[in-house]
């Protein structure tokens, strides 16, 4: 058992040296492409050897012809299996951040620059995945295909992509060709929302240096063009049929109500439970349409609202060093 583990560790180290992390897209060239017979291919080779011995023993010309014909088909199959992966390029499309504990779907984009289609291509993050019933995809000639790869997440932060195994059994399943690829990409994982503490009390006042006309609540100050992230409840729908442009109401309340989500008030436990509580507060404040700010040790985000502000707060929580 210990010998097997040492061999696996040495194999992984050798693969890492051969396939260091690279920015996508990564091309599969001959030096990083491997091919070996499958279990079925090994048994088929043993059958051919038995047929050859029988033909030699009985001097059977038809037996020789059939044996060499099948051997030729095996060699042609090996060539097509190798060519099915050669010069493919692999990259990962933009990924939406997830919360810790949720699976993340990686859209792996496979590009085929050749003039013939590439069939039955599989992508796996587990280097031991050799199941013959693994899901596969076909790539049209000169086109692209997206292979959805699912990974589990356990902790917050930047999740580096694991080493990927691109493989194929096409066309006859007698050989397996594969290549190791390590993309220099990562996925942002937010803290898991948790905690039962209610939202902190709202305090009056506007954030220092903030835009009062944009976040006020009392005095109507006019209209402006709609921007991405503006809450739908501030859209002035009556002006849309007349102008054909979405406009947003502005208010000029110098004493807005601001909600501060403070790390020091998010519980008495360690850092991770507090970050989980803050994550739940951010989601709840955003759902209610509140104006809120975030205070972390060494970081302060001024009160604001909308999707960009929510994502900025969640990103700070995910990348907080503590």
Structure notes:
- The strands form five sheets. This protein has a five-stranded antiparallel beta sheet. It has a four-stranded antiparallel beta sheet with strand order 1-3-5-8, with no helix packed on it.
- With 322 residues, it is α+β, with helices and mostly antiparallel strands.
- It folds into two domains: 13-189, Immunoglobulins (Immunoglobulin-like, Sandwich), CATH 2.60.40.10; 203-222 and 254-319, no CATH class.
- It is elongated, with a radius of gyration of 30 Å.
- The protein contains seven helices and 18 strands.
- The chain crosses the membrane at residues 33-52.
- Keywords: Membrane, Transmembrane, Transmembrane helix.
- This is DUF58 domain-containing protein.
Bin the helical content: 25-40%
Main beta-sheet strand count, sense and barrel state:
5 strands, antiparallel
- Percentage of residues in strands: 25-35%
Using the alpha-carbon principal axes, give the shape: elongated
Strand line-up across the major sheet? 2-11-10-6-7
Q: Could you name the ranges where pLDDT drops below 50 across 5 or more consecutive residues? A: 205-217
Specify the CATH class of the largest domain. Answer: Mainly Beta
In the residues, how many domains can be counted? 2
